Amino acid sequence: MAKGYLVAQIDVHDTETYAKYTAQTPGIAASHGGQFIVRGGKFQAFEGDAPKGRIVVIEFPSYDQAEKFYNSDEYQAIIGIRHSATTSSVFLVEGP
Length: 96
What we know:
Elements: E1 3-12, H1 15-22, H2 25-31, E2 35-39, E3 54-60, H3 63-71, H4 73-85, E4 86-95
Antiparallel strand pairs: 1-3, 1-4, 2-3
Helix pairs in contact: 1-4
């Protein structure tokens, strides 16, 4: 079974509000089998435009579990916090 990777590019413009979101996300992801493999940190673009802000990657045991996490009542209850504090793009990718 292929894993699912939730990949986000997040440009934070309200760090205090964003911290309320990041305090809750790991527990919700873990309850769906997810674990953070990238959570911010140093990066550089070798080709194309560098993303703004931070990159986050959460690995899930399957694509379906990643999708269930994103659509879960628990995550949807806090997604507005991220929306209010950031400009972001979020993708779900199937991988090995």
